[in-house]
Amino acid sequence: MDKIHNNIKIIIILYRHMNTCIFFLHFHKAGGTSINSMFSNYNKWTPNINGNPWMDNEIIPFWNYNKKEFNNFKNKLIDHKIEFVAFEWNYFKFFKELDYANVELITCIREPYERFI
Questions:
Q1: Can you give the residue ranges of every domain in the chain?
Q2: C-alpha–C-alpha distance, residues 105 and 109, integer Å
Q3: Which partner from 3, 80, 87, 103 sits 20 to 30 angstroms from 44, CA to CA?
Q4: Distance between CA atoms of 42 and 114, rounded to whole angstroms?
Q5: Is the dihedral of CA 43, 102, 108, 12 positive or negative?
Q6: Does residue 95 come out as left (phi exceeding 0), alpha (psi in the -120 to 50 range) or beta?
Q7: Mode of pairing for the β-strands spanning 52-55 and 48-49
Q8: Which string of DSSP letters, residue by residue, matches 50-111?
Q9: Calpha distance 10→109 (Å, rounded)
């Protein structure tokens, strides 16, 4: 496990210097809280719950945004120097239409049998 954490730390350092907002696709029970913790020194949306951005007591459903809405959201992230955003249970509804400049999509898949040992 230490080797995995060291590799993730190297990736985190590289992304930080790329002027990129990291979008973490969190598969439930696949290490999301650990990944969110590894990015604890990154600027995140305020308020957020486990990296997921919230506003007015509800999660911001940016995965449903069309191209214009997503660009507005992304520009707001850039303006506020947000470096890490998580989203769980969802994926981009308009994936092929969106502009991913300044966005890096990442995920983590956990080996399922280790969780039972």
A1: 2-116
A2: 14
A3: 3
A4: 29
A5: negative
A6: alpha
A7: antiparallel
A8: TTEEEETTEE--GGG--HHHHHHHHHHHHHTT--EEEEES---TTGGGS--TTEEEEE----
A9: 18
pTM: 0.78
Q: Is the peptide bond before 47 cis (omega within 30 degrees of 0)?
A: yes
Please give the share of the chain, as a percent, with pLDDT higher than 90.
48
Copy the structure tokens of residue 66: 């069309």
Closest CA to 70 of 100, 106, 107, 90: 100
Rounded to the nearest integer, the mean pLDDT of the chain is 83
On the 0-12 / 13-18 / 19+ scale of CB atoms within 10 A, 30 is middle
> Residue type at 81?
K
Q: What is the pLDDT of residues 72-104, one digit of tens each?
A: 999 999 999 999 999 887 889 999 999 998 898
Bridge partners, 107 (sequence order): 25
The amino acid at residue 43 is N
